[in-house]
Amino acid sequence: MSSMEFKGIEMNERRGEFLVGLALALRASSLLFATIAMRTMGPFLTIAIRFTIAFIIIAFLFRRNITKVDAKTLLHCALIGITFFFAMLFELLGLKTTPSSVTAFLEGMVVVMVPAVTGIVYKKLPDRMTVFSAILAIIGVGFLTLKGDRIGFTSGELLVLFGTFWYSLSVLVTDTAAKHDDLMTVSIYQLLFIAIFAYIGAFIFEEIRLPQSGTEWGAVFALAVICSCVGFTIQPFGQKYITPERAGILAIFNPLTAAVLGVIFLHEKMTPSMLLGSFLILVSILVPALIADRAARRDAAAAIDSDADSGPDGPGRN
């Protein structure tokens, strides 16, 4: 099997896009499954069991990477793990009182949070497109959280936004702490650390109650296998064949899928103001990604033309 094949299928950009879109859609189902799992369990234990199962499966599949670790890498994994842990914890705490469809679109505020956190840390002003996206996303959140004739956040919505802040920190920590570490090793051990932090919280803050029905256990295994393991394996592979800008466009599959699943299976209602807010948040994600993708494709085409002009049959050669 060549490096351009995936399970016997020859890979190309279009199939890479399909894998990334599928991974994002599968991971978006986590809000649906988490809502079901937390009918009995608390958020700490839900995270703990999910990532224990995910760690066992991924560690077995990529067991050769288990030994490729040192104390410094483990420290990096712990730092990444604790930021991801808080991101998911506040997401689940907010999800207990916030519809999954609203939660999904509020998490779209990451387009504001990541540049803001990065700008503060690196003392770098954002560009005009980032500012435009931020303003559009903030307006969208205003409509999304509109209560009658006034804008106001519930405690659950604020928790979701706080989780988005922690996710932004995790992006920054991952970029700086693990830049020179083996990606697969970091991915495996961060699952373990997320589970460890969650177990500590569960034993301190929660009454330990396991799922009470087959549906709840099914939701937990779906969180571990579908949302963590499958998304974990197919998204990086798909991204090998597409540009980061193209992956940014496909990011809209995450909130869209979560919202559709919430409406269909959890019978959540979307008011006109919520639909408008959701649309504005999607635009704030999509427009910068489309512009970046167009620029990247234009630069790639220019580079190809330049190489052709300087080739054996190009100008200046006899």
Please give a structural write-up.
- This protein is globular.
- The longest helix has 38 residues, at 272-309.
- It has 13 helices and 4 strands.
- Helices cover 74% and strands 3% of the residues.
Secondary-structure blueprint:
Blueprint: E1 5-6, E2 9-10, H1 13-28, H2 30-37, H3 43-61, H4 71-95, H5 100-106, H6 110-122, H7 128-144, E3 146-147, E4 150-151, H8 155-177, H9 183-205, H10 214-239, H11 244-250, H12 253-265, H13 272-309
Antiparallel strand pairs: 1-2, 3-4
Figure out the total of helices: 13
The major β-sheet equals:
2 strands, antiparallel
Structural class by sheet pairing and helices: mainly alpha
- Written as H for each helix and E for each strand, in order along the chain, the element string is EEHHHHHHHEEHHHHHH
Estimate percent helicity.
Answer: over 70%
Q: Kindly report the spatial arrangement of strands forming the biggest sheet.
A: 1-2
Calculate the mean pLDDT score and round it: 81
Low-confidence stretches: none
Number of beta strands = 4
Distance between the termini: 42 Å
The proportion of residues in beta strands is: under 5%
Task: Briefly say what this structure is.
The protein is mostly helical.
Characteristics:
two-stranded antiparallel sheet; mainly alpha; 13 helices; two-stranded antiparallel ribbon; 318 residues
